[in-house]
């Protein structure tokens, strides 16, 4: 009986495995072409201050796949990382987001807002990362102090000397640095005192279960305190409900981002709604 079910299982398993490999090869091949075919675009999610005035936006990549439609980054960034395509894609994101911000400024829109740009670990670890940023700034002519790079904790633990040097060079270019998904990465907080970080971004996992007395609310409040005591701005992501906004506001949180305030949207829509 065991033999039989084993056979049945392998019959079932093999085609599935095969299908997956084919899918993956196909996906990776089309990902390789996607830049040349201009299938990537940026969506923008608004960020607000305590008065719910728009003060920034985060650029979030989307892949307009010919067969699959709009693909979210969670579905292709892992492939892009594995195949190292993320390096080229990330360079494109930098240029596109800086250019868009520069164009807005020229047209008199969102002039006081910051543009947040996600950086991948592999992208950040490249020797020429700072040059990549400088290139995007120079090419677009954007005001560097309106560009905020979102790094994650995991990028900061590798080679401390190298990381500090890179971040200082980025600061010399005049850009801002934010720590994305804060609280979910490595637990060593000592780097917060050594690295030039402008903003902490409270991870949405803490925000989603906020209300007085939950463990998550204790962590969120602590992050706000740590950030403020180190002269950093604190932003909460994943704010879906008014009660979350109110609670975070009462704790002194500076900025807010989430579906409850505005979803990621194409440039046209952002301009139509917030200009
Ligand atoms: P992230 O940087 O932490 O971005 C926040 C993600 O949470 C976005 O998902 C956003 O749409 C989503 N989000 C915002 N508000 C809410 C909310 O209220 N509730 C919930 N449930 N989700 C919310 P998205 O756009 O699918 O991006 C996922 C991740 O992909 C990003 O997480 C970021 O790590 C990565 N990513 C996106 N764009 C880029 C990019 O241009 N370059 C790189 N390297 N990574 C990117
Ligand atoms: Mg982000
Ligand atoms: Mg995040
Ligand atoms: Mg996240």
From TrEMBL:
<feature type="domain" description="EAL">
    <location>
        <begin position="24"/>
        <end position="275"/>
    </location>
</feature>
<protein>
    <recommendedName>
        <fullName>cyclic-guanylate-specific phosphodiesterase</fullName>
    </recommendedName>
</protein>
